[in-house]
C-alpha cells in the first residue's frame, strides 16, 4: 500500500501512540521521522538501568494480548517475532490492610486469612477464583460468572463498535446500527453502581474495580461500560513480555525501522510552524525537521499551549485547567538484597476504605494518608533484571496531579511507603536497599511535559470519554494530528496502539 508515497510525516514523541502511528503511516508509503525529546524510545515506557538492575519506569502490565496480536498482524507479523510472553500465575496478589469483613473458619485455595489481614491470589484458574469469592460472600462465585459474562459481551461489542471505531462527531453516534450494537451493554451509570448490583462485600468490589487505576478514574466517576476491563483481567490473562515492557518497545521499534521509520532521539521540539505541505519543526539541537504532515504524540496540552501560536490552538489554557486528570504517581525503584517473599510479580496493597484515597486524588488533592498502592517484582519472573541474590522492585502510589513534591515531602513519603509495606505485607525493605531512584509529579511534568504532572493523561470520566476527548485531527491547523492517551480510545498501552491506527486512518482519509 503506497497511498502516501511522496508524503513526509513528522511524529513528535516516541511513546506507544507515536510508534503505532509511525508504523501505519510508513506502511502506507509515507516517509516518517519520529522526533523524541529524551534519549530513549518508548515515552513513558522507558527503562532505568543501575548497577545490574533494569526497571520498567512506566507501564508494567501486559494486558489485552489480542490488541498486540492485531497490531502486529497489520504488518504480516506476530508478537512472537519480536518477543516472548509468559502468562503469570497468579495474575496478581492482593494484600488487604485489615480484617474488616473477613469470615473466620472459611478457607479456599489462594486465600490466606490471618491476624495481619487477608491475602488473596487471582489466578488463571476460574474455579479457584470462585472459591475465593465464595469465602467472602456465599454464592459470589456463581455471581462472578454472571458478571464476567456481561464483561465479555461489553468487551467484544465495545471494542469492535465503540473503541476501535472512530466516532469524533455527534452525528457519528446517530447511526441506527449503534442501538443494535449497544443492546444489552452496560453503558450508563458508574462502575460503583454497576459492581454493587453484583457484590455486597467491599473487598470483592475492590477486586472488580482495581483495573480503574489503568484508566485513571475512580469507581464513582468511571462509566460502567469499563467493566469490560474485568474480561481483560479474568478472561484474557496477564502476561510478562520478554525484556519487560521495554522489550515490547524494542520489538515495535524494530518493526518501525523495518518499515523505514527514522528516529531522532534527544530532539525536543520547541515550535511547530507552517501548515499542511510545509511544516517546520524547530528542535533544541537547532536542526529543523521539515514535513508535509505532523502527528503529535507529545502531551496534548503541551503541544497546543507551548508549541503552537495562539491562533492555531483548538483550546485555551482554561480548557486544559478545567479537565479532570488521571493520577500522577509517587514511584520508588528499588534494588534489594535477598528475596521479597511473599510478594508476587504483581501485588496490590489495598486499604479497607479506598474512597478516602480516591478523594485525596480527585476531590481534595493531598498526599494519601492511608494509600492504596502497587508493587511490581519482575525478578520473580525474569532473572535478567537483577543481579544474583537480589530482587528488582518498584512501588507505585497513585497521587493527585499537581501536588507539590519537594525533596522534604518525598523523603517523608518514601518512609511512609516503606513502613506501610513492612506493616502490611511483612516485607521489610528498609535495611536491604542497594539501589534507589525516585520519580514523581515533577518528573512527569519535566521529562514528559505532562500537564499538571499526570502520569496517564485525561481521566475516563463520562464527560471525557469517546467524542468528549480531544480529537485526533486538529480543527485549527490543517495537517496537524494527535495520537496517544489523551485522544480516543484513551489511556493504556493497548489503547495507544489503537489510537495510532485511528490517527493514521485520519491522515489517509484526508490524503484521499
From TrEMBL:
Gene Ontology molecular-function annotations: oxidoreductase activity
One biological process term in Gene Ontology: carotenoid biosynthetic process
Xref: InterPro entries: Amino_oxidase, Carotenoid/retinoid_OxRdtase, FAD/NAD-bd_sf
Top-rank lineage group of the source organism: Archaea
Pathway terms, separated by semicolons: Carotenoid biosynthesis
Region of interest (Disordered), ranges: 99-120
Primary enzyme class: oxidoreductase
Amine oxidase domain residues: 17-508
Keyword Oxidoreductase included in the entry's annotation: yes
Pfam family, one: Amino_oxidase
UniProt entry keywords in alphabetical sequence: Carotenoid biosynthesis, Oxidoreductase
Keyword Ion transport listed: no
EC assignment: 1.3.99.26, 1.3.99.28, 1.3.99.29, 1.3.99.31
The protein's name: Phytoene desaturase
UniProt organism field: Halobacterium salinarum (Halobacterium halobium)
